Amino acid sequence: MTADKPYYSPATKTRTRFTVQGSRFIATLAPADDEKIVLDIIKQVSAEFTDATHHTYAYRIGSGRAMLERSSDDREPAGTAGAPMLQVLQGNNVSDALVIGTRYYGGTKLGIGGLTRAYRDCARQALADANLKKKEILIKYSLQMAYEDLGSVTRLIETLQGIIIGTDYSDTVSVIVQIPACQSEALQQGFDSACRGRGSLQKP
Fold this sequence. Notes:
Layout: E1 7-10, E2 14-20, E3 23-31, H1 35-48, E4 54-61, E5 68-72, H2 82-91, E6 97-104, H3 111-129, E7 132-135, E8 138-145, H4 150-159, E9 163-169, E10 173-180, H5 184-194, E11 200-202
Antiparallel strand pairs: 1-7, 2-3, 3-6, 4-5, 4-6, 8-10, 8-11, 9-10
């Protein structure tokens, strides 16, 4: 996921259950944009299913270079649980999300391949059942312009689905805006046209 591309995040917590050769799997997918939220949800699910054999998980927070990715196999063989679930989140461009794979051992060993498939299915089925919302990456800009250009610039920002988060009036007008990253080039071109080359635009 590149820094300027939108991504998807679960709108609410969802839960999916299935069985593989006697082992019961419970997949919990939840929105989480902070590690404290992640840890709280893991504790809640662990407390809800205290007798489960494993609580594996994977999560992604943020986007671009600032993205945080973590996973845990929770005593399953290394690489068979957390990593497959993380790969599913990555492959579906999902972030600000936590998926927990809770397993009740059913008496039959699934083997490395079986475990990997089962935990991958935890994430896949949870995503299939989830209501995913699109998240735009927002970039902040500081715009400075003459008073007579404010109306044109405001209409430009609305057209580009940006928002004004601060305005300062002095000899000129200074405006702080947030614009979807995919609209950055359009903002720069449109702003220069709206101000007839008299304004200035920069990242604060």
